[in-house]
Amino acid sequence: MSRLKDKLLLRECERGRADRALRLLDEGAQVNRLHGRGMTPLMVASYQGHRELVELLLARSADPNLTASDGASALFWACVRGHHELAMILIRAGADVTAARGDTADQRTYTVLHAAIGNGGSAALVEALVKAGAAIDDTRWGEDAIEHASRAARDDLVELLRQMERRSRTR
Predict the structure, then answer these.
(1) Closest CA to 88 of 139, 122, 47, 136
(2) Facing residues of 111 across strands?
(3) Is 3 exposed, middle or buried (0-12, 13-18, 19+ CB in 10 A)?
């Protein structure tokens, strides 16, 4: 019965039904279970952009640093889907800003910072990621964050990242 409740919790997180998710959690559904698709309820809620569910799951001890087999985390999905407010919530909850998704064997790993830049991330989100420890010079995607912002025609982020890089060098 517990596995059924866990599957139902994942479905309710996908559909944005916080009231039903809360009931399932109260009935014993596991908040941190990785499901067959390799995602936790928090990853699904982050992917779908359901703020109320993200907050509920975090309050119920959802681990923001669990990753799927490909390395994708709840923060990664919030960034890649453009849910910047959720990304900020996850950062405040201690999500690993150095996490990345992809194949490290071919050096094409998509970092959380690259995901934010490439998907319309706000300057505030990019700054929060870097301040929390995301590396501007991480080239696992084949280019660093400044090069990625430049290629994405995000001059605002290029300037911000250059300023942050200069500040970090003077410390």
Answers:
(1) 122
(2) 100
(3) exposed
106 backbone dihedrals φ, ψ, rounded to 5°? -105, 15
Nearest 5 degrees, angle CA 168-CA 119-CA 134?
25
pLDDT tens digits, 136-145: 999 878 899 9
3-state secondary structure of 169: helix
Exposure class string for 31-58: b at 16+ Cβ within 10 A, else e: bebbbeeebbbbbbbbbbbbeebbbbbb
pLDDT (tens digit per residue) in 118-170? 988 899 999 999 999 999 999 878 899 999 999 999 999 999 999 999 988 88
Task: Please say whether the beta carbons of 129 and 154 come within 8 A.
Answer: no
How many C-beta atoms lie closer than 10 Å to residue 114's C-beta? 30
d(CA 113, CA 135): 8
Residue indicated by tokens 């996908």: 14
Q: For residues 168 and 171, what is the distance between their CA atoms, to the nearest angstrom?
A: 5
> Positive or negative CA dihedral for 167, 168, 169, 171?
positive
The gap between the terminal CA atoms of the chain, to the nearest Å, is 55
